[in-house]
From TrEMBL, chain A:
NCBIfam families: PRK05089.1. It is a single-pass membrane protein. This is Cytochrome c oxidase assembly protein COX11, mitochondrial. Signal peptide: none annotated. One of its GO terms (cellular component) is mitochondrial inner membrane. Keywords: Membrane, Transmembrane, Transmembrane helix. GO terms for molecular function: copper ion binding.
UniProtKB/TrEMBL annotation, chain B:
InterPro entries: CHCH (IPR010625), COX19 (IPR051383), Cys_alpha_HP_mot_SF (IPR009069). This is Cytochrome c oxidase assembly protein COX19. Its main location: cytoplasm. The keyword Disulfide bond applies. PROSITE patterns: CHCH (PS51808). It comes from Triplophysa tibetana. GO terms for cellular component: mitochondrial intermembrane space.
């Protein structure tokens, strides 16, 4: 009907102008409906996107909680254990190459607990060695009392960060050592410094490492737990 | 060191030795080897690389007298010394 009016207007060139919106109501309605569905579409898309984002957020939080037991499983499977930082492996001793141009001084310190009556001291104050080379050092312990004394020792390495590169092949720590009255023994420590020490930028200015042993008196039947991953 | 109870500081974690603990040499069976090694260290200004032969001999003494588990010397980091002695033997024969 409106098209006929349009034609009439064009024919008669009437002044009355009917707005385009009314002339083509079907097109307007279509546009409105399209706009409506578009908005609906956008709303739906927004909702789905928001749901995905929320799910991802919840997933991240869940993953951070799950990572603790997962990492533990991974450590047990790959055997990195407590030394996961610079996991040295015992096969490395055979194949490592000493790094000749990096000389490190290792100083030795010996302590006893206040109630421990042994005389415990290192037999050398320092040793100069290079990473990748195995070295032997001696401590001496004497029991001046008239009774057998059982001692147990632990050690410490300074600087702390260098401790991860300090590998002991064999020593006298963490196990009970019994000294008879007036007995004096030599206690060796066989160790090496991991060649990767040379490549660590944090160790670039470290020239001296101090190894410090402390002896405690052990009560009968007491056992220090061997440190490690358990 | 590990008594500084600061939140977030890593404390020192001592590690068990790879091959366990040396049994004590109560009878001083390897004392002579130890003396030789210490004398070598003192005369070489405590330079470890000059006294490796002596340390190898001390460990061999321990192994011979059941004071240490027997291990091939390569596994103890003495591969270069073992190779050198092998080369010498080959050169002689």
């Amino acid at each position: 009907m409106f098209t006929t009016i349009n034609r009439l207007i064009n024919d008669v060139k009437c002044v009355v102008r009917i707005p385009q919106r009314l002339l083509n109501p079907s097109r307007g309605a279509k546009i409105n409906r399209r706009k409506q569905t578009q908005e609906d579409d956008w709303k739906k898309r927004n909702k789905t996107v928001l749901t995905y984002i929320a799910a991802a957020g919840v997933g991240m939080i869940g993953l951070s909680y799950a990572s603790v037991p997962l990492y533990r499983l991974y450590c047990q499977a790959t055997g990195l254990g407590g030394a996961a930082v610079a996991g040295h492996d015992t096969e490395q001793v055979e194949t490592m190459k000493p790094i000749r141009d990096r000389v490190i001084k290792v100083t030795f310190n010996a302590d006893t607990h206040a109630s421990m009556q042994w005389n415990f001291r290192p037999q050398q104050s320092e040793i100069y060695l290079v990473p990748g080379e195995t070295a032997l050092a001696f401590y001496r312990a004497k029991n001046p009392t008239d009774k057998p004394v059982i001692g147990i020792s632990t050690y410490n390495v300074v600087p702390f960060d260098a401790g991860q590169y300090f590998n002991k092949i064999q020593c006298f720590c963490f196990e009970e050592q019994r000294l008879n009255p007036h007995e004096e023994v030599d206690m060796p420590v066989f160790f090496y410094i991991d060649p990767e020490f040379d490549e660590d930028p944090r160790m670039a200015r470290v020239d001296t490492i101090t190894l410090s042993y402390t002896f405690f008196e052990a009560k009968e039947g007491q056992r220090l737990p061997i440190p490690g991953y358990s | 060191m590990s008594t500084a109870m600061n939140f977030g500081t890593k404390s020192f974690r001592p590690r068990a030795p790879d091959k366990g603990s040396f049994p004590l040499d109560h009878f001083g069976e390897c004392k002579t080897f130890k003396e030789i090694y210490m004398r070598c260290l003192r005369s070489n200004r405590f330079d470890n690389s000059r006294c490796r032969e002596e340390s190898k001999e001390y460990l061999e003494c321990r192994m011979d007298r059941q004071l240490m588990a027997k291990e091939p010397l390569e596994k103890l980091g003495f591969k270069d010394l073992v190779d050198d002695s092998k080369k010498e033997k080959e050169a002689k024969s």
